[in-house]
Design brief:
CATH architecture of the largest domain: 2-Layer Sandwich
Largest sheet: 6 strands, mixed
Number of strands: 11
Radius of gyration: 23 Å
Length: 429
């Protein structure tokens, strides 16, 4: 049974930790409740840009010192930005937790925002890299197709126009507003005691306290826009296509059925799409389904990368399999295998202190109920086949499907899309 401890610092941050016996490492994460969906159009990409700049030096440490300290600890230090949060995380030997916290606290709460132009150039290169990687770029186009002009439809990485012109003042103001104590969660897992962790944090914050402020309240997505179609013409060997629709929120009780649906549809090597499209017919190297869950909505999708002659057959197979699952044609061994797959992946992931820390931090920063492993397993076991079929029929109903693609011919792409959702073509026209 997982045992975690939760407390709150005087500065407003929530601290959550779990002791993992038998390891000599500690995973640490500073979770900030602000991501791409919290930005305006004029600040698109600022959350991600700030994440980069945290490593470029702080009040007490230069960028080189930060790198040298963690290299000297034999530790790992990294960061990530999503649509709803930013995370700075590390894993270090248990003897060096105080040192890691001292540096991370200064990075997170007192960045110098130095070397702005050089890091601006790095992010612009990152944006250019995405533009040259169609199998990645198509996912951003897909979010735009599903969510339209809502902030969830914008790429997390931002736009070149904003990154090229954003000022240090704008970055500092946004940082002060979002990196406030009440909007930050500090999570840890590994060989440590919670009370000792709190004392270490208090010692680190004696030098640098976070700005005052409570958790941000984000405006919910009341209603998703109608399905959309987005295509980018590019001289590629393959067509890269995403098909899907708005999903369910991370607090939705149907999320366990959604995970089983994903595993059966395209989320595993034995899944229907992987077997039918890749293994039996050899029409794609990469084909999979996926699901993202946000505070108030979600995203479900299928990705296929294939050559022109296979595009229409691949989408036809996708439509057929979605209809078959929605019609209730699920075999008992499919459900059983999907359940065991989920349970096994959860158990294996919990052998990592980093995964345990991420589970704690993400649950708390997103205000999602933190279920015990036993409860999660019970919820997975409780899912019935008819729940999976009903959810497939609801989420992947043809009239709900948005489509995004990258390839050499929009005419070919549109002809294939007609098999998935003809109405989205009329709406796009």
């Amino acid at each position: 049974m997982q045992k975690y401890v939760l407390s709150e610092l005087d500065s407003g941050e929530r601290v959550i930790s779990e002791r993992v016996p038998g390891v000599r490492s500690v995973a640490l994460g500073f979770w900030i409740g602000a991501g791409a969906r919290d930005e305006t159009d004029a600040k698109a990409g600022v959350s991600h840009f700030i994440e980069h700049l945290l490593f470029k030096g702080s009040r007490s440490y230069t960028a080189q010192q930060i790198a040298e300290i963690f290299d000297g600890l034999g530790g790992e230090l990294n960061a990530a930005t999503s649509r709803e949060h930013t995370m700075v995380y590390a894993r270090v030997p248990d003897a060096y937790v105080q040192t890691a916290l001292d540096v991370m606290t200064d990075m997170v709460f007192a960045p110098a925002f130095s070397d702005l132009d050089s890091e601006r150039a790095v992010v612009l290169e990152e944006i250019a890299m995405y533009e040259d990687t169609p199998q990645e770029l198509v996912h951003d186009l897909f979010s735009e197709a599903v969510f339209g002009r809502h902030a969830l439809g914008r790429p997390v990485i931002g736009t070149a126009d904003v990154i090229s012109t954003v000022t240090k003042r704008v970055l500092s103001t946004y940082h002060r507003q979002t990196y406030a104590g009440g909007n930050v969660v500090i999570a840890a897992a590994g060989n440590l005691e919670h009370n000792k962790l709190v004392r270490m944090l208090q010692r680190a914050q004696s030098q640098q306290r976070p700005p005052a402020g409570g958790p941000r309240v984000r405006r919910p997505l009341v209603k998703a826009p109608p399905p959309g179609l987005v295509f980018a013409k590019k001289d590629t060997e393959q067509y890269h296509v995403c098909v899907g629709a708005p999903g369910i929120a991370r607090s939705d009780r149907r999320r366990f059925a959604a995970s089983i649906l994903d595993s059966i549809l395209g989320g595993s090597a034995s899944s229907r799409l992987f077997q039918e499209i890749r293994e039996k017919r050899g029409m794609a190297y990469s084909v999979y389904s996926y699901a993202s869950q946000y505070t108030d909505t979600g995203l479900v999708g299928v990705y296929i990368g294939t050559r022109e002659e296979n595009l229409l057959p691949c989408l036809e197979i996708t439509a057929e399999q979605l209809a078959d699952i929605a019609a209730g044609n699920l075999k008992a061994n499919e459900i059983a295998r999907a359940k065991e797959n989920l349970k096994g992946r959860i158990m294996l992931s919990m052998e990592s202190t980093s995964n345990r820390m991420s589970r704690l931090g993400k649950s708390l920063v997103t205000d999602t109920e933190l279920l015990s492993f036993e409860r999660i397993i019970a919820e997975i076991e409780r899912v019935e086949a008819d729940e999976v079929s009903e959810l497939a029929g609801l989420l992947f109903a043809p009239e709900r499907l948005s489509v995004a693609g990258i390839g050499p011919s929009e005419r070919v792409f549109r002809a294939a899309v007609r098999r998935i959702n003809p109405s989205v073509l009329a709406r796009a026209a």
